[in-house]
Design goal:
heterodimer, A: alpha+beta, six-stranded mixed beta sheet, two-stranded antiparallel sheet, 4 helices, 30% strand, globular, B: alpha+beta, 32% strand
Chain lengths: 184, 184
């Protein structure tokens, strides 16, 4: 008798929300069939997300959707809520269906105390889904890890941008954010 | 941001069943807020449970309720389904509510491949609930571990009964089962 936690697919996850088992404002995300509870967002985490959000929207000027702490439907068993996702424009403006991996140009996760989890679970999760780029903001160490070129479920390129550096993206033309502006 | 699997209480667990997220014949149990999936029951496991059932029913002669793979409500976050439970006689046969810890005289878990889980998770779970006695059948090593005298969340007495030995219980007067009648 093998023992494992019961996993849920996206349909069951939403069924649980409709049935009231999961409250609408509950901070959870679905990661590989597990419903993961997220802790309250700390002050530095919130400030960092706001700084990035402001700069991304200024750059996007309505050409892309900057989605903050909203779900992305990666597959039938994973619907994480990255701190920020840059989405391609879509005719329905995402009113009809959650963004799918093909809609996502960049995801950003901000880690205050969850670096280990984000690096070991989230990075492979996004790489396997083929998300072209992920930024992982390591607040305690004041550095941003940039993961690109997902190949065979892993990002084949990783580089670090520290406080004096500048954040740019191969897929987001003209974007340029000073690391110091988002690290606080 | 600390990361943990979302836990469920018994009310939410049943809400999920009513909503159809968990199907009625699904082999799951609630253990410390986690919905644990149980693997299919192997033939040796099934035979062992049947052997207990026959002998316990014969001994009980309707003075106790002997139940097979049915739930016990330990607390708000745990409702396991032990392979066998011996309950105080109640004339409604627990139709109005699942047995609570004080209704339970003995639980038996049969382990084919799940010894580690049963020893590390189930034994403390039952001990903390104050279940007076637990038998853990280790099929692969052909030995039955008898746990009794729960004190501060742990069974203070553990003994092993191998082939040649006889199973008896302090809380079940007159019960006597030969180990080989169970182990086959």
């Amino acid at each position: 008798m093998h023992v494992a936690v019961r996993h849920f697919n996206v349909a069951e996850y939403y069924q649980m929300a409709r049935a009231g088992v999961l409250a609408e404002d509950e901070r959870v995300e679905l990661v590989r069939g597990e419903i993961v509870a997220m802790s309250p967002i700390g002050i530095r985490h919130a400030a960092c997300v706001n700084q990035i959000n402001m700069r991304l929207n200024r750059w996007a000027r309505g050409r892309f959707v900057v989605s903050v702490q909203n779900p992305i439907r990666l597959d039938d068993h994973s619907e994480p809520q990255p701190d920020i996702a840059i989405l391609k424009p879509r005719d329905d403006v995402y009113f009809e269906a959650q963004p799918r991996p093909g809609d996502v140009l960049l995801v950003i996760e901000v880690a205050d105390t969850s670096m280990g989890y984000d690096r070991e679970e989230k990075v492979p999760l996004y790489a396997e889904a083929g998300i072209p780029e992920m930024w992982l903001v390591n607040l305690p160490e004041g550095v941003i890890e940039i993961y690109t070129e997902p190949v065979g479920g892993v990002y084949s390129s990783v580089r670090q941008v520290a406080r004096g550096g500048v954040l740019t993206s191969a897929f987001l033309p003209g974007l340029s954010i000073r690391a110091a502006d988002v690290l606080g | 941001m600390q990361v943990a699997v979302r836990h469920f209480n018994v009310a939410e667990y049943y809400q999920m069943a009513r909503a159809g997220v968990l199907t009625e014949d699904e082999r799951v149990e609630l253990v410390r807020g986690e919905i644990v999936a149980m693997s299919p029951i192997g033939s040796r496991h099934a035979a062992c449970v049947s052997r207990f059932d026959m002998r316990l029913q014969r001994w009980a002669r309707e003075r106790f309720v002997v139940r097979i793979q049915n739930p016990i409500r330990l607390d708000d976050e745990s409702e396991p389904e032990p392979d066998v439970s011996v309950l105080k006689l109640r004339h409604d046969f627990y139709a109005d509510a699942h047995p609570m810890p004080e209704d339970v005289l003995l639980v038996i878990e049969v382990a084919d491949t799940s010894m580690g889980y049963d020893r590390d998770e189930k034994a403390p779970l039952y001990a903390e609930a104050g279940i007076p006695e637990m038998w853990l059948v280790n099929l692969s090593e052909a030995v039955i571990e008898v746990y009794s005298n729960p004190v501060d969340g742990a069974y203070s007495s553990v003994r092993q009964v191998a082939r040649g030995g006889v199973l008896t219980s302090a809380s079940l007067p007159g019960l006597s089962i030969r180990a080989e009648d169970i182990l086959g």
